[in-house]
Amino acid sequence: MRYCINCCIHLLPNDLHRHCFKCCGPKRINQKCPVCKGESKIPLYRDSKQMKLLAVLEVRTDHSESWNGFFCLRKGKLCSLIFGLIIMTLVMASYILTGAKHGLLLIPSPFHYGAFTSNPSLMDNESLSDMKDHYQPSKMNISYIKDYPSIKLIIDTITSKIEFITRQRPDLEELRKQEPHMFSVIPNKFLPNSKNPCWYEEYRGNTTTDPYATNSYALYSKRFRIIFDYLRKVFWNHLYHYKDKHYRLRCLPHFYIIGQPKCGTTDLYDRLRLHPDVRFSAIKEPHWWTRKRFGIIRLRDGFHDRYPVEDYLDLFDLAAHQIQGVLQSEAAKEHGKMNNIIIGEASASTMWDNNAWIFFYDNGTEGEPPFLIQDFIHAFQPNAKLIIMLRDPVERLYSDYLYFASANKSVEDFHEKVAESLQLFENCLLDYSLRACVYNNTLNNAMPVRLQVGLYVVYLLDWLTVFDKDQILVLRLEDHASNVKCTMHMVFQFLDLEPLSEKQEALITKSPASNTRRPEDRSLGPMLPTTKAILKDFYRPFNTKLAQVLFDDAFLWKRT
Question: Where are the transmembrane segments (predicted)?
């Protein structure tokens, strides 16, 4: 059947020829087209036969109505897309509103701390690094957190949870039960003619016995073996013989430089050991009270055999030999000359590191350690003197990061680590006390930077529960750097040391500073201003309390 294209092209595209009135008429029978008079010069075929290409192009070119099917298809896809976006928006809005309601909108903390373990035998077959992995959650990318207002909310929460509560001091019998061997070795009285705490101990070995054969410091460190080789050679020359028995002089330190790391303790140690009446342990930082007596050599290596107290005392044998020389001199025998040589120990972890307690002592104080390092030191040496060197905790943390970070150090990386550590600390404070979080081994190992080391006042208050205030000298690195002579005079006076000649004093005070920042770390420049502002806000309440305890506003560090 043929139809005239001139009249049919004006019709709707749906079933075009069946509804062609002009071509088919009202009775749908073929009739002449009123336009072409029946000539049908441009025929349009229907049924299954093809149309002429020219006719098809002409229809599609002249009449937009033929595109309507295509546009309907596109409109359907567009509607589906819009509908999908609406659904996605609603889901996201629901998630955001729910997170805000539960306080999760602001960077949810990646760690959640459950109950503290009360089983000290937990670590019998598990290392510290294993414990860290046990508590380690999935890592969270927080590199986008660089705005001060967001992290300030975390700091505000931390500040609201700060409470300085006086700890309960354990009695002596409780300490004896925890460390019976230590109490069997160290006496409760020392030689009266020695300024330094010393005593004579019977030696039951013979000339073929190596007194340092089992010393853990010598076994685990090659660089200490030279020292012990020398001690072996001179050991028998320094034994005291009395009534067919051999005695060796044992000594503990008279004073301790107890902290803090990256606060100038190495420089103080190097200067102080130049004084003619001062001796130190064979190793600058034995870390015995905080780590070695628990069997910790390196935290990442887990636990080893515990170092007995005898191994610690061996470190003072060189100094003990010199003290013994004074005590056995003719002047001492005839005129009762007093030994004025004193021994020091400079482990910068002594003030703050009580992380191992959870694995050895029962937890009966809701996450707080029942015994601290100072409890045991005071039990043996109630008259010990303590020196603490501090610096602005903000700068201390950055220096600590530069010193201990192994790779990929940058100010941006430091900022992100600070942000993550603040979140972890906040999360702990939501469930536990300030002291429990500060001494929490799991938290301290998880934090990328050691925020807790800068909470000076928390540690100082705990030391003041067992030692009198006049037994503790607190210095600032900033003052020491600007006036070394003044700082050293304060230390000499505190330790009751004899005055020095001008030459001796110049040797001590004019020597270059020790353990300064490495050149490659200096090239990184200062921390980001935003990071510094965040840390100043975090440490401010702790510095305020510290200044109140010491009655010195310099410990506010407002000018740094």
Answer: 78-97
User: How many other CB atoms sit within 10 Å of the CB of residue 173?
Assistant: 7
Side-chain-side CA neighbours of residue 510 (13 Å): 6
CB burial class (10 A; 0-12, 13-18, 19+) of residue 130?
A: exposed
b/e map 85-113, b = 16+ CB within 10 Å: eeeeeeeeeeeeeeeeeeeeebbebbbeb
> What is the spatial distance between Cα 133 and Cα 295, in angstroms, rounded to a whole number?
20
User: Is the Cβ–Cβ distance between 178 and 202 less than 8 Å?
Assistant: no
Q: How far apart are CA 238 and CA 513, in angstroms?
A: 36
Cα 96 to chain centroid, rounded: 31
20 or 299, which is more confident? 299
Q: Is the pLDDT of residue 523 over 60?
A: yes
- In sequence order, which ranges of 467-559 are alpha helices (DSSP H)? 477-482, 484-494, 502-509, 519-522, 529-550
Q: For 237-279, give the DSSP string.
A: GGPEEETTEEEEEEE--SEEEEE-TTSSHHHHHHHHTTSTTEE
pLDDT at 387 over 90: yes
* Contacts with 426 (C-beta within 8 Å, 6 or more apart), sequence order: 109, 154, 157, 158
Between 26 and 544, the higher pLDDT residue: 544
In terms of DSSP bridges, do strands 240-242 and 2-4 run parallel, antiparallel, or are they unpaired?
unpaired
As assigned by CATH, the class of the 172-550 domain is alpha beta
CB 15 within 8 A of CB 28: no
What are 491-503's pLDDT values in tens digits? 999 999 998 999 9
Residue 401 tokens read as 């990061």
pTM of the prediction?
Answer: 0.74
